[in-house]
Specification:
Number of strands: 7
Distance between the termini: 30 Å
Radius of gyration: 16 Å
Length: about 140
């Protein structure tokens, strides 16, 4: 697909809690990335195959940017989640209740935890660049 102004109309943005260790951070990001793709409607995101000079295919990479930001704490991620709900931005999030014991146990623990008691480890958003930038401008790039 040729470059156009539509290249940057939407974006993925993950915000990760900087207080968690690297291995856990990568696990959270992986779950968020897979999860956000399942939230989107067919054709809402654009995925492209890259072809190299030897005709090798590097399949299904996002046409839209995927930005990774860091958050100082869980409450800042909670606020972004609230804004996403208010603004109709599609998202997926990951909390401390989703770490141990497998999916069934994690779902049970989450269902027994009040939202205010959840520690947010990350969130991933997808939508209009201008809306997401207005929500996330106070966060810095994860380096």
């Amino acid at each position: 697909m040729p470059a156009s102004s539509h290249d940057n109309e939407k974006q993925f943005v993950a915000i990760l809690n900087k207080k968690i260790e690297l291995g856990r951070t990568l696990n959270v990001l992986s779950h968020l990335s897979v999860g956000i793709s399942n939230v989107l409607e067919e054709g809402e995101a654009i995925f492209v195959d890259y072809q190299d000079l030897d005709n090798g295919i590097h399949p299904s990479l996002s046409h839209y940017p995927f930005i990774i930001l860091k958050s100082d704490n869980s409450n800042k991620i909670r606020k972004i989640r609230e804004q996403a709900i208010e603004k109709g931005i599609k998202f997926t999030d990951f909390t401390h209740t989703m770490i141990e014991g497998g999916s069934t146990i994690q779902q049970q623990i989450t269902s027994q935890t009040k939202e205010e008691d959840l520690e947010y480890l990350g969130i991933c958003l997808f939508g209009d660049v201008n809306v997401i930038k207005s929500m996330t401008r106070k966060f810095s790039l994860y380096k």
